[in-house]
Amino acid sequence: MNKLSNDLHELADRVAKSEQETASAEQASRDKVEASIKKSKANAKARQDSFKADVKKKQAGVATQWEELQNNYNQKVQQIKNKIETEKEAHEAKRAMLRADDAEAYAEAAISFALMAIDEAEVAVLEAIDAQAYAKSMA
Questions:
Q1: How far apart, in Å, do the first and last CA atoms of the chain sit?
Q2: ∠131-124-72 over CA atoms, to 5°?
Q3: Residues 22, 112: contact at Cβ < 8 Å?
Q4: Which residues, including other chains, have CB under 8 Å from residue 56's CB and lie 6 or more apart?
Q5: Domain range summary for the chain, segments of one domain joined by +
Q6: What is the dihedral of CA 97, 100, 102, 108, to 10 degrees?
Q7: What's residue 63's pLDDT?
Q8: What are the backbone angles phi and psi of residue 28, rounded to the nearest 5°?
Q9: Tens of pLDDT along 19-69?
Q10: Nearest CA to 122 among 18, 14, 15?
Q11: pTM, entire model
Q12: What is the pLDDT at residue 70?
């Protein structure tokens, strides 16, 4: 669980960094904004590539397609919640440990999903700032 706590801290730090970068990007020149966009896109692609590699390595039985992760997200959340509620006291120690491992792996995947979503949001905000700057320069 310590790893999940660290991952959630990383997620919070990433959100704070994105907020700070977008706030400073509004004041930056167009060249700086374009450089930030390129950097953010490269970081997002690197994180996505890393996520896909981790999924293949850790979860050989689970499909690695990003679209499947999105499609199965809500279903898996509900399954985990149902299992935890209905079988909480009925499980023996070994089965409970396996369920906990599955839940932790799912939490790691969800955190990775959130990190990639933050990357995409940051790129979208920076591109919007760039478009506004361009529109103002044309006026």
A1: 54
A2: 155
A3: no
A4: 64
A5: 2-138
A6: -140
A7: 45
A8: -80, 160
A9: 888 777 767 666 776 787 788 889 888 988 888 887 677 655 544 455 566
A10: 18
A11: 0.44
A12: 61
